[in-house]
Design a protein that fits this description.
- Helices cover about 20% and strands about 30% of the residues.
- The chain has seven helices and 18 strands.
- Strands 1, 2, 3, 4, 5, 6, 7, 8 and 18 form a nine-stranded antiparallel sheet that branches. Strands 9, 10, 11, 12, 13, 14, 15, 16 and 17 form a nine-stranded mixed sheet that branches.
- About 5% of the residues have low confidence.
- The structure holds pyridoxal-5'-phosphate.
- Pyridoxal-5'-phosphate binds next to helix 6.
Length: about 325
């Protein structure tokens, strides 16, 4: 075990022992290597630098109650990454290589996996970038696939505290931000301005409406939207311009297991006034309850003191599966040998 203050880990880059990497050249992927330096060298004309030919994923490994380390649903991330890869004309990642790479990134950094009971986990960041040179607009012919492994802390230390969200109503840049268009990664740069504007206004999170009509809820800057209706239904937007969240997919399954009706459908903006609970869901924090949503001079209020009962139940169920406290009844965990 590394000498780390596990209880005070945040969600920040930390240099670990190594990352794993494979290079695609002459039409095929090379051997998966282990790299101890956390820098890479590439051509100044690399397509990831000029044309944004790059995408990433985010998933986690957990040290479970029995001491074993398990990765949560890595095949889902592979599927999503390959969808993104075809969209930005990167080569597909073979399943066997992706799985070996995420497992290796964990096993080679095993002493960085936070102990069970601290609430921490190991965040895995697969990255696919065009590293071949091009000056004319065209995809490159060399790519690097990298997996970083970084220990992250418990987001909520005991108390799941709701946060306030803002809809930047004169802000119309959600479309080119590219979450739905380029799925995960690709280009979050166009969202950075909205994100920092929200932060400057005192809101940790911003909510995007659909950029075409601004009549429907899309998603939060870094997570999907869940609304729990007053009669206990789980509602989440069906939209082509949001990231298909693996956390949302998992929570939807757990909701169904619990007999909670699930509706995946367009969610009209005016409906946000009627939800009993609202949450933002994603790998990093599972569920962030929303206390208030501010949109211009309108404020929609929920419980700003504590997480609502339905979202709390779903949060507990998912985290208990992830830490091996209850049976993995859907086969979501993959053990790292
Ligand atoms: C824009 C956006 N939506 C949703 C999510 C949640 O996706 P997942 O549950 O697969 O982490 C993320 C993840 O970080 C995200 O960046």
């Amino acid at each position: 075990m590394k000498n780390i203050d596990w209880n005070n880990l945040g969600f920040e880059y930390i240099k670990t022992d190594c990352h794993v990497r494979s290079t695609f050249k002459n039409g095929k992927w090379g051997r998966l290597g282990i790299h101890r330096k956390d820098t890479i060298t590439m051509n100044v004309a690399a397509t990831c630098l000029h044309y944004g030919q790059a995408c990433f994923e985010g998933l986690k490994a957990f040290r479970c109650k029995d001491g074993k380390v398990r990765i949560f649903r890595p095949k889902e991330n592979l599927k999503r990454m390959n969808d993104t890869a075809s969209y930005i004309h990167c080569p597909q990642l073979p399943e066997s290589m992706f799985i070996r790479a995420v497992k290796k990134a964990v096993s080679e950094n095993i002493d960085f996996v936070p102990p069970y009971g601290t609430g921490g986990s190991m965040y895995l960041r697969p990255l696919l970038i065009g590293t071949g040179p091009r000056i004319g607009v065209a995809p490159g012919d060399q790519y690097d696939f990298i997996v970083l492994a970084i220990p992250v802390g418990a987001y909520y230390k005991g108390n799941i505290k709701p946060v306030d969200a803002v809809i930047l109503d004169d802000y119309d840049r959600s479309a080119p931000r590219g979450t739905g268009h380029i799925k995960m990664g690709g280009n979050y740069a166009a969202g950075l301005h909205a994100h920092s504007l929200a932060k400057k206004m005192g809101f940790p999170i911003n909510l995007y409406l659909d950029s075409k009509t601004r009549q429907y809820v899309d998603e939060f800057g870094t997570s999907n939207f869940i609304g729990i209706t007053r009669d206990g239904k789980y509602v989440t937007p069906d939209s082509t311009t949001i990231l298909p969240s693996i956390t949302n997919k998992s929570l939807t399954q757990l909701a169904e297991d619990m007999g909670i009706p699930v509706e995946r459908r367009p969610v009209a903006f005016h409906e946000i006034a009627d939800f009993a609970e609202i949450g933002a869901c994603g790998t990093a924090v599972v569920i962030t309850p929303i206390g208030r949503i501010v949109c211009g001079n309108k404020t929609f209020e929920y419980d700003s003191e504590k997480c609502g009962p339905v979202l709390k139940k779903l949060y507990d169920e998912l985290t208990r599966i992830q830490y091996g406290e209850i049976p993995d009844r859907h086969g979501w965990l993959m053990e790292v040998e």
